[in-house]
Amino acid sequence: MDRAPLSFPENFIWGTAVCSHQAEGHNVHSDWWEFEHRGKIRDGSVSGPASDMLNRYPEDFALMEKYGYNGFRLSVEWARIEPEQGRFDEDALRHYESVLKELRKRNIKVCLTLYHWVLPKWVADAGGWTAPGCVRWFKNYVRCVVRRLYPLVDLWCTLNEPTAPLFAGFVMGAFPPEKRSWPLACKVYGNLLRAHVAAHSEITLQARAEGDPRQPLIGIAHAICFVEPRNPHNPVDRKIHEFFDFMHNRAFVESMQTGKIPFPFGIGETIHGLAGSYSFMGVNYYYRMTLRVPAKIPPNDLPDFLFTEGREVTGMGYESYPPGFYQVFKYMSGFGVPMYVTENGCADAEQDDVMRRRYLVRHIAQMHRAMKDGMDIRGYFQWSYIDNFEWLYGFEKKLGLFALEPGTLNRIPRPSATMYGLIARQGVTPEIVREYAPDTEEEIWGA
Ligand code: FCB
Prior knowledge:
The chain is an alpha/beta fold and 447 residues long. The protein has helices at residues 20-23, 31-37, 53-67, 78-81, 90-105, 121-125, 134-149, 163-170, 182-209, 235-258, 322-333, 354-372, 415-426, 430-436, 441-445; strands spanning 13-17, 71-75, 109-115, 155-160, 217-223, 226-228, 281-284, 288-290, 339-343, 377-383, 402-404, 411-413.
C-alpha cells in the first residue's frame, strides 16, 4: 500500500489559537472577571494571571517560531482597551501593538478576534448585548482598534462563536449575564449580527483609508458540530436533530448570507449591510453531537445532551469524530469563500498525551481529504497553544500543546507540540504518524 505523505500547500497557515481573557489573564475590568469572583467557576478558580501571556508573549512567540507554527489567533480585550466608557487606554493599545509587531517580526500570520465572549463591565452593567447602545459602543471600540492595528493583522474575526454567549448567556443562564429569556436571546441574536456588520464596515473603511489594494479578510469563528439523529428511522429524533442543527449550526451563518433574521429569532427582518458581509468563514469544530434529551435540563453542561456511550470521548466530554470535520467543511463551502479552521483541539489531561496526538492527526487527515476533494481551506489554528482558563471549567481542562508548570507558569511542551510542528513543516508523513499516533496509520492509509 502506498503511504504517500498528506501534503499541504506551501502557504498554508499552521497556527495555534487563544483568547486573550483565557491566556493573557489580568482582565480585571471585564464581566467575566466579576462573574468568576462570585464563585461561578467549577473548580473555584478565577482567571487571574491565566497563562500570563500578557507578560510572557515574547517567550511564547519565540517558542511558536522554534516549533514551526506560522500563525497565531488571539483576541484583543475590549475591557482592557476601553475600561470605562469613552476612555481608551493607551497602554493597552500599545501592548497589543507590540504583541502584533512581535508576531510580524517572526513571520507569524495574525488572526485577530475582536469579541471573544468577554465584555467590559460597564457594557455588561448597561445590559450587554441587549443594551440599546451596544452596537454603537462596539463600533467605536473596533474603530479605535483598526485605526491602530490594521496593518498588523492578516485575518479579522469579528466575533468568536456568537451562538455560545447567546445560548449559554441568555437561554441556559450559565454564562454572564445568566439570563433565561427567549425575548432577550432574540435581541442578542440581532445585535451580534449588527455588531458584526459594524466591525466589517470599520475594517473595510480602514482598508480604504490605508490604500490597501487587497480586500481585507473578514469573517467570524463559527462554532459548528456534526449533528446526527440518534435513530435516523425515528421521526422524533430526526426532528430534534433538524432543530438543533438549525439553531446551533446554521441560523447565524445563514443570516450572514441572506441578511435576514429567521424564525424563531425574528420574523425575517433584514439587517442592512449584513448579506454577504464576509470574505472567509472560520470553522471551530470539536465534536459530533448525537442528541439525547436529558431527564432534567442542566444549567449548562453540553455533555449532558450528548449521546456518547461506547464512543471516543475527549476530556471535555465531547465525542471525537473526525469524519464530521469533513462533513462540516462540505456545508461551510456552500458560503463560497475560503475557509480557515479557527479552532479544533482536544482536552487531554493525561501525562502521555496520546489522545491529543490521535485527535490531531485524525482531524488533520480529514481536513486534507476535504482539500483533496476541492474544498478551499487555507489554514488551521489548533486550540490551544497553551493550557489556559477554560471558562466554566477553570483550569481543570488541559487543551494546550504546551502545559503550564504549576507555580512557575513555565511552558512545558507536550509531545503533540513537537508533532504539530513536524506536521506544519512536512505534512502528515508515515514516519510522524508511526512515532506519535501509530494506531491511526491504518485509518489514514489503509491496511
Ligand atoms: C471554544 C471557545 C474557546 C475554548 C474552546 C475549548 O468553544 O471558543 O474559547 O474555550 O472552545
